[in-house]
Each structure stands twice: as C-alpha cells, then as structure tokens.
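Q: I'm teaching a short session on how sequence maps to structure, and I want students to see two examples side by side rather than one. Could you give me a first protein with its sequence written out and its structure tokens following it? Keep the formatting plain so it prints cleanly on a handout.
A: Of course. Example one:
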Amino acid sequence: MSIVEASKTELHSQLSAKKDVKLNMIVGVDGFVDEIIHVVAQRKDFKSFTRIMNIEEFGNRIVRAAGLSTNIELVTAQTKLGGNGPILANALLEYGADLSYIGAVGSPDIHPVFKPMSDKAANVYSLCEPGHTDALEFMDGKLMLGKHAGLDAITWDRFKEVLGGLEKTADTLSKADLLALVNWTMIPNMSDIWQSIIDEVFPLLPDRKEKPAIFFDLADPEKRTIEDIRHAMDLISKFEPKFKSILGLNKKELYEIAAVYGVAAETFEDTLKYTYEKLGIYCLVVHPTKDAACCANGEYFHVDGPYCEKPVLTTGAGDNFNAGFCLGQALGISPLNSLLLGVSTSGFYVRNAKSPSIDDLLKFLIDWESGKL
C-alpha cells in the first residue's frame, strides 16, 4: 500500500475534460426537514444574542441543571432539506448529474423544502413523509436531534411499488452509473431492502463490462446492536458481484465499525487499513474534519483538506464530501483524486452554505492551489 500526494492541477484538468459527461445516478432512501439551530448563550436584546460556541460549553450548561431546571433558547437560523440522501442528491445535481431520487420526501405531495431538488431531478419517487431534525450547530461539531416517526413506512414493497414493480425496479437500477442507498441507522427496514435487492433484483441485472459504483453511508450506527451492524456489513460485501461497493464513514464511525471486528490499531491509518481488510469490499472511505483517506483495490490513499476554522454551515459537510468522492469514482477518476474532489466539495460547502457546481469546484481548486482560501 502507498500514500501518494494528490495533484490539484491534475484534478482540475480531469474535471475540465469530463464536466459535460452525463452520469445516471439513483439516490435514496431517507428524507428529513432540517432546522439549523443556534443555541443562545446570552441575549442582548430582542434581535441580538451571543451563541454557545462549542459542545462542551453547551454540555456544562445542561449538567449544571441536574437536580434543578434551566431554560435554553434555540434560534432557527435556517430550514432546509435534510437527510443523507437528499443532501447527497442535491450536491450531485449541482454537478449536473441525471439523477433520480427515491425517498421520504412527502406524501401525498412533495414537501416544500425538497421542491428545488425535485425541480432539478430527472425523477422523484416519494415513499412517505419526511422525518425532522433539529441540528444544533457549534464551532466544534453539531448535535443532531432526530424525530424519525413514520420512517418505518420505507419498505422493500413500497420501494418496488413506487418504481412500478420488480422488473421496472431492476431496469431502473441497471442503468445507474452510481447507486447510493444511505442512512442505514435511521431506516428500520434498510437491511431488508438491501437483502431484497440482492435476492430479487440481482438475477435480473445484466453483467456490465465495468461494474457501477454503489455507495453506502451508515449515519452514526452507535445506537444499533453489534449484531445488526455486522449483518449490514455482510450485506454490503454481497453487492460486490454486481457493483463496486463503497462504504463512507466519518472518523467516529470508523472506530465503531473497527470495534465490531475487534480491530484495535494504534493509528488512524492502521485502523482504516485493518477494518477495510475485514469488510471484503472495493472501497472504504473516511472523512475526518481536516483530511480524508480511503482504501480502494487494496491500496491506501490520504489527502489533507482545505480546513475552514470558521465554517458558515457544517450540517451536510460529510454528505458533500461523499458527493465529491462518488462523482470522482463514477467518472473513473483515481481514488486519490476522488478524495481530493471530496474535500474540495465539502470545503466549498462549509464556506458558502451551498453545494458547488463543477465550475465552482474548478475555481475553488485554483484558489486553494494559489493559497487564496
């Protein structure tokens, strides 16, 4: 295995050459309405206040209320589309992908927060009403307070129904350059959906000369049992005969999955490598805050990112990283430069509170290379 330094100039050239390539992508299956929330430290007057800036300060305020009580004021800074799937899809649409979304985006009508996404998408198939997340944002992280009632309506039977039956489902999936089935932790029936695709759809899929990519994101599996997590990992490996399986994790999730397999390495790099060897998949990609790394085809790659000390928005940064990495893989770009594409996408997002277009990324790469960020 080798560590290779990525070239921003090379990636810029590759993106410029491939910017008009139309990729067919299918993303699902969650959907949330996100409220981005700031926590008040001290209110000066009706219009102005200072924020609680870090999680420790917020935690200390809560701890001081033990045995007593306290009042905590929350201010909604923004209401936006949420969920790993919609944020990932929205970012891929900004790149110009020909994308269909299948997920919890409203019933019987599409919820207004998803309308911009649905207007750009080739197709949107709604499974049920979305969940709701209160995202408490701090400078050193965020607390995602989720309300998931109703997401048990996302089932394999419903998935097939909205796509028009098993044969049409297989036909739709067979055309994808990228299939992403994300947010396993919050979708109670996700493992059943994965198993059903393997059992029912695989026999109907043609063999392709170049296997398409399939991307999985667990979305913080801490609350799930070890048995559930191990089963999910086994299912992801079973997609390999028809797809190149990519599992995306953040740093916390990497150590949780490593623990499931009894991996207790001293360094981040070794933890990633040894966990990857246990999974039996094409690629494991991990995005800490300041850098990113992956193992793909048996090799280890690492890049430093364009770290932003004062981000405008962090909720969705990981999904934007995943979008960049997945775009690179769908375009046939190397794992190393796909990592660079991922950190550039998230770097733009946290600075601008929106996902970049290809032209935005091209300019971002130039600014990063010249030290203008």
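Q: Perfect. Now a second example for contrast.
A: Example two:
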Amino acid sequence: MINSGDTAWMLISSALVMLMTPAGLTLFYGGLTQRKSVLNTIGMSYTAFCTASVVWVVIGYSIAFSEGNQYFGYLDHFLLNGIDVNDIYGTIPTLLFVFFQGTFAAIAVALVSGSIIERVRYSTWFLFSILWVILVYSPITHWVWGGGFLANLGELDFAGGTVIHVNAGVSGLVLVYLLGNRSGFKNTSVRPASVKLMILGSALLWFGWFGFNGGSQFAADGIAANALLVTNVAAASGGLGWLLIEWFSTNSKPTLIGSASGVISGLVGITPAAGFIDVSGALFIGFGSGIVGYLGVVKLKQWLGYDDTLDVFGIHGLAGAFGAVMTGVFANPNINEAGIGLLYGNSDQVFIQLAAVLIVSAYSATATFIIYKMISVLFGSGRVSEEVESEGMDMAYHGEKGFDISE
C-alpha cells in the first residue's frame, strides 16, 4: 500500500534533485566558464535536462527498469505504457519513482557537458545528449538498479557512484580527446566569469544532494536519515580536504573555487555509500574524495595535458570511483544489512566494487566514442571553428551575452 510519509518524502526529494540541474549545475558551470561563453555553458545543461526528461519517459525508463535480460530492459514501458496512476513501487506511486529516476538521468548527461564546453557545436551536443541517455545511461542503470548483471554480482551503489559519476566522468574524458583541447589551452590563463555564481551553484547542488542521496532509500526511515547526515559530513570533509591540500601543497592562498570543488568531490564520493556507511566512514570518504579530486584536477590533468574544461573526470570520474571502492571497505551491516564491507569481514566486496567501476568505465568509454563518431559521420565534426571559439559561444550561437557590460 502507498505510505503517505514515504510518498511525501519522495515528492520533496524528487523536487530537490530536479533543482540540481537547471539551477545548481547551471550556476556552478556557468560561474566557472569564461564570460564570453556563460550562456552557452548554462544552455548545454539546461537543454540536457529537457532532452533527458523527454527521452526518459519515452524509452529510457523502459530500458532501465522493464523486465528484460541481464543487460537491457525490454520496451514494455515504452512511453510509460502499462504504468497506471494507481500502480505502486514499494510504498510510493510508480509514477513518482519514474520522475525521481528521470531527474537522475538528466543530471548525469548534463554533467558530461562540463568537459567540453567552449568548443563543441550546440547541435552536436543536442544529438549526443539524446543518444547518450538511451544507449549509455539507461543500460548501465539497468545493470545496477534494474536487476541486471552488476546487481546480481552484488555491487553496492546506493545513489549513483558508478551509474552517474563514473559514467559521466569517463564519457566526458573520451569527448575531450575526440574534440581536442581549446585553442591556446596551455598558454592562456582562463578567468572564471563569476566565482560568486559558482559558489551559489555549489550550495544549491549541496542542498539538492540531500534529495539525491536521501531519496534513494525510497522511504522516510532511519537509513534515509543516515544518508542525509553522512552526505553533509562528507561534503564538509571534502571541502576541507581540497582546501588544505591546495593551501599547503602550493604554499598559496586558499581559494573558494578549490573549497567548493572539494565539497562537490565529497558529495560525489559519498553518493554510492550514503545508505551503507556510518559517520566515521563518511569522514574518511569525504576527506579522501577532496584529495582525490584535487590530485585529478591539478596534478593528473597537468601531467596528461588534456583539456577537461570544468574537470568532470577529476571531480566526478575519479572521486566517484574512489567512493565506489571505499563503499566496499566501509559498508556497515549495522546501518544497512544489505551491505557488508571489508572492515566487517567481507573482503570480496572491494573487488566487486572495483570490477563494477572498470566495467562501467569500459562500456561508457566505448559507447561514447561510437555515438560521437556516428554523429560526426552523419552531421560533420562537432568542433566549432576557431573564429567561433575566439568570439565566444554566447554571441556566435545565441546572439546574447551573459553579462550586459561593456567589454
């Protein structure tokens, strides 16, 4: 039967997660990009939310959650066929479950855009966002949450460490190499358009993440309450971890960009673990995720020389992988009997988590490569011209400016 408390909590959680993309992520990304491309950057996330929301109810949900084989759900719920307004998932309406999961699909593809802003054609991104939800996100969701082979393997992914963050981070990195670096990437210092907007965006993401992680329990109970608590602790620890390593490793002033990036890294790291670990595990995962994010963004990116514009691979891919593996270490059966980690006698869980990260990464990279190449063959290169890149994406594509001030 429908539980009114659970349903009310999931209505709120769904609205919180919805807020994360068209408000939180757009401001976070828009504040970090150059002034001449702010609107285009915001628009890529905004458009992704629209395309993903439509694709999800048409076919994505069916691929992810219909009865199927170990790899794909069938098309039983195409256009939500067979789902009645009175149908129930657990103790909540099925349509509410559909909506909640759709907000996850939307933010997942929007995250990918951060890797390639300021140099990708808007039409290429529009097509890519549609195909990625169908061919990458929805199948992986089925593997983990829809009864697929990773679920049967025993992977623990409470709210999307592999499904969303590793998946998006790896896809973003592949697109970076396919599109190439921005002109003058290694010789030009890029100034963020507005650190204030970036901080506001990070705060909205932090707020929305309570629905992201807490809602993934699909009930208003103790595990959901624990998920909120450890989410906040990990976010704060991640912000401190990045802040401290930045401060002392460079012997420079601590930056708010670094602190906010650490918060997001901590949130990413705790996502797969939120329903399985206690506060002590959250402190370790959050702080460690902040350090992993910093090393990925500052050290690895510099060493390999790739131009991941807004550091999606470092913050989401690497911190997500770290959190997924650490879930296998800290999963506490006293919190959730479904998860038993290394510290509680189950060393196999670490290897299961690592295997899931590697499998998702391999599929995401391969499928992303194929989708982009297919779009390029049919519609031409996804890279904008040097003239457009120099002028800025806002005026070239939209005829608008993000900031109405004189140059």
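Q: What should students look for in example two?
A: Point them to this: DSSP finds 14 helices and two strands in the chain. Also worth mentioning: Strands lie at 88-89, 92-93.
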